[in-house]
Structure formats: structure tokens, C-alpha cells
Amino acid sequence: MAIAQMAKVIIVSHRTQASELLEALQREGICQILNAEEAMVSRDSPELATAGQRPKDIEELLNRLAKSIALLKGYAESTKGLASILSPRTVVDEQSYNKVVSDREILKIIDQCEQTEAAIEKLKAERENLDGTLEELGPWAAFQTPVEEIGRLQQTTCLTGLLPGQQFEQVEEKLSELSGAIQQIGVANNKYACLIVCLNFNINEVQKLLRSAEFEPVSFESMTGTVAELISEHTGKLNETTRQLEGRYEKAVLLSKHLLKLQILHDHYENLLNREQAKGAAPATEHTVLLEGWVKKNDFPRLEKIVSRFGASSLTKIEPAEDEEVPVEIENKNYVRPFEVITRLYGMPKHFDVDPTVFLAPFFALFFALCLTDAGYGLVIIALMVFFIKKMQGDKKLMWMLGICSAVTVIAGALTGGWFGPAEEHFIPALEPVREKMMLFDPFEKPMIFFGLALALGYVQIMAGLVIAFVHNLRRKQYIAGLCDQFTLLVMLNSIAIFAASKVEVLPIEIGKFFGILAIIPAAVILLFSHRQGGWGSRIGMGAYNLFSTIFYVGDVLSYIRLMALGMVTAGLAMAINVMAGLVLDIPYGIGVVAMILVLVGGHGFNIAINALGAFVHTLRLQYAEFFPKFFIGGGRAFEPLSKKYKHIYIGK
């Protein structure tokens, strides 16, 4: 339950062994390698160069593989459904993986994919052009004159094009005034395909008229024969192009059988690229590569063992620079580790900070449970999480966390009598006595208990945040900060709380008076010493502001009322669903039973989904907005060791 201790190391390796060493380090995934800009050895010895050039050949191969995979995915047999979502990567054993990686013939598949893709794109373009040409020729099908003869007249000019239908009569009338004529050949999209004839000396006036009428010229340049012959010719070409395209599609389908092999190669070369980039970016001399980086102290013996296998390599621990940022990795017990999702989502702590995971875990689970307060809903979510954990690939921390929260929800629901809603009317009669024995209170009958519980939990969590910060300052030997920033707040806020309790006669009035006077002492310390920089004027000014800001703790505590509000909303909506189900049950002919089942399943399913989401979001907000600011800063740099990563496949054992 702490931040892992890090060791700064430098590995000096001969260039001939650097690649193999990096592969061993990547396989273990325990060492973060720094590039030349980050490495301190580069600052101390600026004359050092980098170890190599950019691996352009690997990058080019990866780009080709990515394009080939994208092509074949469109033609491969897809496994749609929930299983493909939870397990998107294909499981491959190491033997099959190594067989594919060592088979150089597979690279020829890339060439075939590229040729097929190029042919498909070319044929698609040809088909598109032919479709466009046929669409243009369609309105002219009745035109029997060979198109090459249209422009061979000497005294007159022939124009072909499309004219809006509403303009036809007006243009026809004006053309007759210009000693011209117009003939409609066909129709296309409310436009007439027209042949216009005019004397040469009137061509300018005719063109001006046609422009004003939105005339669209159509050219038959480079075409010969009648339009019917052209349509027949282009239809034949289109059929042939379509046939060839279908053949290329079939080729792509055949190639898609090699999709998994290409995906294996892609992941293999992606990992190779990461190694080569790490090597190429590391500082180096003429004969050696200097791999400076970080390793967890617990993993240092493993790192020593790896490096010892390479005779021309050595490992040394070094001291980090004063201003150097230490990468952070958090380590927790198995029952707390799922809640690291919340910490990582917020941001990693600094290396000198405190890991909040172990502290937020019980609060998060309890708050989530209070937002649902339904044992039936908790059981449903547990069942779903068990299914997801079994079927899902990759990191399952979120599923485990929701499962733990749902287990607490079952307890919270049993204590408040929630079993798919308040259960007085629909609970199994024989088990009703058991339900009542487990129930502590009914939120609808005694909402003030729920109200007080939410406020009390909020107060406890906020105090816990101040205690954590206080203890952490003591451990770092920052005693003044702990005393002036947290201890004073703890004493003052609790004294005020006791004083308020005495005013409502929860505690004796004498005790309240004592703590009311006691609260003055920490208030004075906050006023004088909460800000410790600058002169006394600025100290007291900022101290007064800090003292006034303590009133915001009231708002922080009141924020926890959302726990009660969400819990009541969940129960209220569940009750409404049960009432609606009871109403539709009265529908005769068996329809009522079916309708009731649909209402119950659909209604409670929706209620679980929407309120589980609300419980997660609002509980998350309480941690981030109310709890974390009391002791946690964040902003640390995550520990990212060189490791093998797989995008398309999942290596099974």
C-alpha cells in the first residue's frame, strides 16, 4: 500500500549486444529506459552521440502491414457480438507466434495485399467513371445522329446540353427570334437534354441567352457512333469492370485468411520498433550504448540477473539528480489493487507523495453502495462482473472494483430493506421475517437517519484526509506544516462540531463551552502561521483568508448529501417500476404476465444501468473534489518500463 521505491541505474553495453539486451529487458518489462534528452549522462557528457539512426525500414514495414490489415479486415469473417467486444484480440500460443515470425514467406502476402488493393481502387475508379458516363448518356438515348457529326456544319453551330424544364418554352421563343431552333431529346432530373441550332453570326447572342437560362453544355468529344451504340459499349465495359472487381474481391477474401499472420507480424515489428527506438535514442560512444533508466528496487536483482547474461554489458546503480523527476508506480494488496483505477484516472502521485488508493478504497465502495442501496441490484452487477472478468481480455481492475462495490451494495441493500425496490409488497412472504431482521431502517420511513449517515460519512472522510496529510508531513519531518496546516484544522473543526452538538443538546452544554473556547487557539494559529512566507502583513492577510476559507468545509460536508439523494432516487424508481408491473399484470389473456415481465426486466435493467453510472460518477466526484484536495496533489510521472505490447493478439500460455 505504498509508492514503489525506485532505483536509478545505468547499463553500459557493447553495440554488438545492445539489441539482444534490450530484447531481454523488453521481455521482462521491469526497466524504463530514458532517451538522450532525459538521461543525466547526456547532461554530464554533452559530447555523447545517440546510438543509431531512425529505423525507417521497420517503420515502412509497419505502415505496409497496417494498410494490409485494414484492407483484409473488411473481407475477413467477422465475429460480431459481446464476445468480440470483450475479447477483441485473438489468442495465440507462443509456438504459433514464433512460427509466424520466423516465416519470411509471409512478407509476400503484403505485396499481394498491396497489388489487390491497388487493383480494387483502380477498378472502382473505372466503374465510377463508367457509371458517370452512362448517367450522362442516358437522356440522349433517342439521339440517332452519330455524335461525331454534331460539329461538322459550316453555316450553323450545334450545341448540346441540359436545360431546366421551366426555361424551355422561354428559350425556344427567344431562339426563334434569333433564327435558331431547339429540339428536346430526353429528360433527366427535371432537365431537358436539348439540341440547339443557330446561325454562326448569332452564336454570341445565343450563348448569352443560354447562360441566363442556366444551360449546362454536354460534350461528346472523343466519342464516335450513336448514343445507343455508346451506351451499349460503355455498358459492356461496366460489366467487364464489375466482373474484374468481383474477382479482386474474391482475391481479398482469400488473402483475409492470412489476416492473423499479418497481425502477429505487426505486433512483433511494433515491439521491435520500440526496442530500436530505445536503442537509437540512447546516448552512446563509438563502441558502447549507455542505457540509463529506472527500475523498482524490488526488481533490481532480476535486472542484475538479466544483464549478467551479457558478457559485454554492466549494470550500475547511480544517484538521481536533485531536480530529476522520479517515475512513480503504486503497489497495493490484491483487495485494494482494483481501486488503483480511480487513482490512475486522477493522476499519479509524486514520488514523495502518498498513494491515496488504500484510503479511498473503503470510502468508494461504501459510497457506491449507499448510492444504490439495493441488494438485488448488487447481486445483478456481481453476476455481470463475474461474466466480464471471465470473458474479458486485458486489465480487469475496473471489473473487480465494481464487483467489490456491488458486494458492499448487497450489504447496504439488506440493511435498508432494498431488494429490487422497497420489498414490503413483492418480497417472498416466507422470507419476509428474515428481510426484516436484516434491515436496520427503512429510508422512506426514516429518511433523517439516511441524511445523518451521509453527513457523518462525509465528515469522517474529510477528517481522514486531514489526518493523512498530517501524518505524511510528520513522516517527511515537516513538523511545522503538519502542525499549522492540518493539526490546527483538525482541532478547530472538531471543536466547532462538538460545540454545535452541545447547542442541539446532543452533548452536555459544559463540554460544548470548553471546546468552543478551545477552537480559538487553532484559529489564532491559522491566522498567524498558516501562511509562512513574506512579511507579517502578508502572513496575517493570507492567514485571515485561510481562516475564512474553513467555512467551505461546511459545503464539503453538505456535498455528501448526494449519497442519500441517489440512494432514495434508486429506491423510488424501483418502487415505481414495481407498481407499473403490478398494474399491467391485470391485462387479461396472459398478456399481463408478459407485459409485467417486460416492465420488470426493462425497468430494473434501466434503473441499474443509470443509477450504477450515477453512483460511480458521483462517488468519483466526492473523492476528487472533497477528499483528495485535503492531502493529495498528483501530477507524478507514471513508471513506463520497456515491455512487449500487443495490439492485435493476446499471447496465451
Account of the 3D structure:
With 653 residues, this protein is α+β, with helices and mostly antiparallel strands. Among the domains are: 2-77 and 261-330, no CATH class; 337-630, no CATH class. 59% of the residues lie in helices and 11% in strands. It contains 24 helices and 14 strands. It has helices at residues 15-28, 40-44, 56-73, 82-86, 94-102, 107-137, 168-177, 203-212, 227-255, 259-281, 300-308, 340-346, 357-372, 375-391, 397-416, 432-438, 447-475, 479-503, 509-518, 520-529, 536-549, 552-558, 561-584, 591-627; strands spanning 2-3, 6-14, 31-33, 49-50, 90-93, 156-164, 181-188, 191-199, 216-217, 283-284, 288-296, 313-318, 330-331, 649-652. The strands form five sheets. It has a four-stranded antiparallel beta sheet with strand order 3-11-2-12, with helices on one face. The model has no long low-confidence stretch (mean pLDDT 87).
How do the helices and strands line up, and which of them pair or pack?
Blueprint: E1 2-3, E2 6-14, H1 15-28, E3 31-33, H2 40-44, E4 49-50, H3 56-73, H4 82-86, E5 90-93, H5 94-102, H6 107-137, E6 156-164, H7 168-177, E7 181-188, E8 191-199, H8 203-212, E9 216-217, H9 227-255, H10 259-281, E10 283-284, E11 288-296, H11 300-308, E12 313-318, E13 330-331, H12 340-346, H13 357-372, H14 375-391, H15 397-416, H16 432-438, H17 447-475, H18 479-503, H19 509-518, H20 520-529, H21 536-549, H22 552-558, H23 561-584, H24 591-627, E14 649-652
Parallel strand pairs: 5-14
Antiparallel strand pairs: 1-13, 2-11, 2-12, 3-11, 4-10, 6-8, 6-9, 7-8
Helix pairs in contact: 1-10, 3-6, 3-10, 6-9, 13-15, 13-23, 13-24, 14-15, 17-18, 17-22, 17-23, 18-19, 18-20, 20-21, 23-24
